[in-house]
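thoughts on my protein:
***
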Amino acid sequence: MALRDWKPLLAILVIALAWASTSKAHLVSIALYYGAHPPRHSLQAFHWVVVQPDAHFSPRRFDKMGRSAFAYTSVGEASPGEYTKIPPGCVLGKDRAWGTAILNQARRTCRQDFLRHVLTPLWKQGYRGFFLDDLDAYRQAVTTAGARARQRQGLIRLIRAIKASHPTARLLLNRGFRLLPAIHTLVTAVAAESLFDGWDQKTRRYRPVPKATHRRLLRKLLAARRLGLPVIAIDYLPARQRRQAIADARRIAALGISPYVTNGRLSILGVGTIHVMPRKILMLYSGPQDAQHTSLNWYAAMPLNYLGYSTRIENVAFGLPHGTLAGHYAGIVTWFANDHIPQAAAVYRFLRRQMRDGVPVAILGSFGFAADAGHLHPLGLSVGHIPRGLIRNRVTFSDPRYIGFETRPVAAAPNNFLPLALRRGQRLLTLQDARGQGEDAAGLTPWGGYALSPDVVSYLGALPGRKGRAPAAWILNPFRFLRRALRLPAMPVPDTTTESGRRLLMAQIDGDGFANKSWIYRYRDRYAGEVILKQILDKYRLPTSASFIVSYFTPHGLFPKAAAHLTAIARRIAALPWVEVASHTFSHPFNWPALEHDPALMGHKGDMRYGYALTVPGYTRFSAHKEVGWAIRWINRHIAPPGKRVSLLQWSGDCDPDARVLALSYRAHVLNLNGGGATETDAEPFVTKVRGLGIFKGLYFQVYAPMQDENVYTHSWTSPYYYGYVRAIQTFKLTDSPRRLKPLDIYYHFYSGARVAGLRALRTVITWALRQRTDAIFPSQFAHIAVDFGHAVIARGAHSWYVSDFGADREWRIPVRLGYPRLRGTKGLAGFDRHGAVRYIHVAPPSAGAPVRIRLTPTRPRVPYIHDANATITTAFYDGTDLSFALDGHMGLRFRLANAGGCRVLDGHRPIHGRITGPLITYHLEAHHGRFTVRCP
């Protein structure tokens, strides 16, 4: 290009950069999402959001979070479905590229029709912001200067009429630059499409914007800025070009213009001044079993949860998602049993499309589709000649960083050797047969990575005297492999094990055995529920959920003669301030899927030890409503004291309710818990024994108990193993190092009060747990944390991270190598603590829905901060070097401050004094709550 061609562009850039240097405050984070189901939680990371008015979206709820929702509204065009609603004379022509009618807003009747039938219904729907599109559409239909002037005047009158009828309406214009001199004081901001990259609707292709067009648009945007308006540039790139989208957004922001870069259909979460980091992983399997009984749920979910990601397990037999997952999901993990699943063709097409769109894929077990050249060559894999018969082979290479995590790799079965060569990527494991052919059985690829059976998880065989599934151990390092294959970035992630720098601690009691007569001499023939009350709950004031099986207490239930006495004991338990009331259903279903499938099985034993559920007189047909809602209401009326209600449903038996039953707990406004549970011990020190956070069933999330109960540690509560629950301490230790995978969960049944050894083991576990540095919470609080983990949003800005919508999950975690959070002058950050190779950051939201900024620095802060506390940090903010914070706990407050030497610490207005322990100052208070200020010279 000749120098003279650059001069106009250089002049514009000089002006733009001058504006940019003085107008950083005018940049807004905006997103436009036109899909039917906007990702509400992710969109809350943005200040402004534009959605289609018929989307599943609540503008009132969004606005309450301190954000602004704008309804997409075409002022200049109408879609084909609206043709019959347009009054005569209100159509100027057609936009053939979009297949829409061009509207005539010069006529008063047309403007009135728009206000009456378009804008007013949106106002009633709750929208207070409107994205006015197609303001220049009339130029396609009218060509004379006079006709165009009349159209402009009509649009000006329309905008004035909108503000006259709705003075608080926020109007965001898409172009309409010619209107601005007359109405700029009525407008919130102005947007324009395609500053650097655009979408051609006629050809349905992406295209770079010609330089001359770019210069003209930039000139118009800068002119709008001079009117005092924030300006926005909306650019378009394919979903797979995420890195380019980030670069373009930064380039636009450098001009002082708020950016948003998305795909042509505006159906992905694009990039603005921030870009939201997707935190969902789609996990696919095929088979007759439900998702709860898959390797994805048993083994793969937990490492992904630890890495900071929420998992969605789907059976491909019921279909695959439509459209691209880019921007919505961080990656896909598949775990198929073989290469010949019935849905192989659909799965291959789906995965290839997502790979092309830049969504990483990790394949575990088998490919799920034919392992032939036609399928594998596009994936960078070549297949050699597959000889017939049994192929003996051996391991010739393994990368110790990825292979041999808990047990050594093994050769493929003689009938399962696949001569496979990785052409592009990094080999992790290679096998070789006697003829010299190799099988690259695991590798990292440009599209993600794969690891084939049997070198994913090794099943070790049944142990002597043990029932149930044989223990398994990871051959593949799931933490390292999944992070690399899915290209998961090093960033702050929400944590569910820790709060305020301390490991969470809770206790939960399942209702089984409440009416058992105790064998303990002192309490001979007393009910086990009363023993637990006197020996545990009265002595250890630890936040505990006590759940009750309703049929134990009803007058016509399992124990009609003792019901009144049992209810009196239950009421005494429920009245304790450190006990929350929970339901353990009506009849304690042991096999939820069977009863859901055939309610008439109620009362039958089948091949189960106790039957499908407890046999309650008169209850002959299973009712999910009775087990969930009715049982909760009964406990509220007959056991819970005034002012306290059931806060938790603890699932019974196999803890496998279906989506319909799970939904009942949500409709009852009660959180749920149970299923899963860690059982890692010194005898089986495998992270395969640690389950994930829970599982989505339909729209709802079932929260797993962090640890297993004493029934598992005592061989199903049989003699001579009643003391076996002490091994839970091994689980507590192993799930804390080298990675803290779970909080402490003291999980037991009332029947532990029936045996001396069982009660002694329980007291030993509780005593050990209370000696640790923990933050004690109720199990319902943990359920809140687990649910909110899936909602938490993290977005990346130019130099900072922004976390929002994290609810009760207030502890965030980073690798130590990322540095320290900058604290001075912040709102919502209270401090940090280190545990092993990670650093926990204590977050407290400054206001409902407001994001918290985390800026990382290599330098340790010098201002005072909370190192750790045994309570929730509800508020925190810095005023210069002074720190103000509030704590809300369930026990006497214990907290430690760093960098507080020479500072005054006030509890309200009262000075308090701590004990110096090395670089920290420790404070002990009797109160469970408090507001504190640290004032430093």
